[in-house]
Amino acid sequence: MKNGKTYPAAITIFGAKGDLTRRKLIPALYNLYIGDHLPPVFCIYCVDYLAADQDAFRKELLDGVNEFSRSGKADPKKWAAFAAQVFYLQGDFMKASTYSTLKDQLEAFEAASGQRGTRLFYFAIAPRFIEIIAAAIYKQQLCNKVALDRIVIEKPFGTDLATAQQLNRYLGKRFSEKQLYRIDHYLGKETVQNIMAFRFANYVFEPLWNKKYIDHIQISVAEQVGVGKRGGYYDSSGALRDMIQNHLLQLLCIIAMECPGAYKAEMIRDAKTKVLKSVRPFASAQLFKNVIRGQYTAGEINDTEMPAYRKEEQVAANSNTETFTALRLFIDNDRWQGVPFFLRTGKSMFRQSSVIVIQFKDSPHKIFKDDIVPNRLIISIQPELEISLLFESKLPGLQMKLVPVEMDFTYQDAYTETLPEAYEALLLDVLHGDATLFMRADQVEAAWKVVMPILNAWKKYPAKQLHLYKAGTWGPAASNVLLKPYAKEWFRLPSGDAVKE
Ligand code: BG6
């Protein structure tokens, strides 16, 4: 395998003036640089259509690093050395001249470094530009070395199955699948990667990880933020496309997949794709019983007034777009037959909390008088970073009295290292040519297939059962009904805060 560390790397970011570049990509690249993870010879070309002076642009990026980098404010010397390798190229994505200028720069960089190294093209752009830029870099032969050149594509990858298939075909005609890195930043999160380690490096759980011992599974990603300034994009997307089709289905895959033959990209991606292909298709007659959607109305979060979704910038005043989705699905294979998986995500909710709960079954044979709380494994992805196991214990004293207690592993207590950001892990993997944490074409399509019956039903009945919920609550009460008879309500980490419905 070509190792990005030893090859010079020319990184091109299309969409350099966008939020992603400032908030995530440049802070991630800077942290890789100061951690000595970037190749010794590298260069970052930032392309966008707005006019910008080189120094002013670098200053904008520095402000972004100072505000968003996990390592805090940039060290002036290190920043100066890093920024000297960052160049702004003003260019219209629609014009051939943009790509010929880029080509000249890439060739000059490679001539100076004495080697044709890795070329990484990051598409941090609106989806309408993907095909345009792909066609242009193909035509100019900028990305023609299969072993060295890579393209990173941000979500959304298509807006439904047909558009995703079309985009896959379009890219597939011009580039090898090996060169295409479809990003789902959840897969780069340290706590998400740790689920694989937890499942497959601890054999003790494997015999329990199935329908015989597991009652149900909840995967919940609650966000406190609303749509903010992204109303333009979000109003035509909604929670199902924005979060479920990608992030939550990927979490489902990691929880439900079979152990791959080896820790190798294709084997892992095969195992995940199998999960998606085994999800029982949603039957239209039951759809509104198995899928709940909601939209936030005005409310309060941390004593701050939050607007109703329909009053957000660039959102239609009569919008039926869902900002909350909860669903119940089943996986039709031997391991999971009959075990319900509950997925939920929403914006403007009571608090940020991404958790996966594995609820084990009650013991069929009871020898104690006390009611026993069945075992539960809780994997907290963010903001808490922990794994805990709930079990029964004898309360100290002269009687046999049982109480549930927790065994906890927290990152904070176990490690002193700060965790890398998802984008650092993912960018480094691309430089190393490791596609393990990226979505393959068939995986993206399989994920779209899962949600298509829901999209179709909502298209047919745009306003049917759109449950409104107040910002600052845990979403519509109807989503608790979905859990019956398995649970009364969605699991919440104890936060000490008053519960709001
Ligand atoms: C993005 C979605 O993919 O993920 C956003 O488009 C969402 O709407 C974000 O807020 C959540 O990511 P994180 O890392 O903050 O949980």
Structure commentary:
By secondary structure, this protein is α/β, with parallel strands linked by helices. It has two domains: 9-154, NAD(P)-binding Rossmann-like Domain (Rossmann fold, 3-Layer(aba) Sandwich); 187-357 and 440-481, 2-Layer Sandwich (Dihydrodipicolinate Reductase, domain 2). Helix content is 35%, strand content 21%. It is built from 15 helices and 17 strands. The chain has helices at 19-34, 54-68, 76-83, 96-113, 130-139, 161-174, 190-201, 231-234, 238-256, 265-278, 287-290, 411-414, 422-432, 441-460, 478-481, and strands at 9-14, 42-48, 86-90, 118-123, 149-153, 180-182, 214-222, 291-297, 299-301, 304-306, 324-329, 341-346, 353-360, 376-382, 386-394, 402-410, 466-470. A nine-stranded mixed beta sheet has the order 16-15-14-13-7-12-11-8-17. A six-stranded parallel beta sheet has the order 3-2-1-4-5-6. Strand 15 and strand 16 form a beta hairpin. Helix 1 crosses helix 13, helix 5 packs parallel to helix 6 (161-174) and helix 6 packs antiparallel against helix 14. It is globular and about 80 Å long. Mean pLDDT is 95; it is low at 1-5. 6-O-phosphono-beta-D-glucopyranose binds at residues 155, 185, 223, 242.
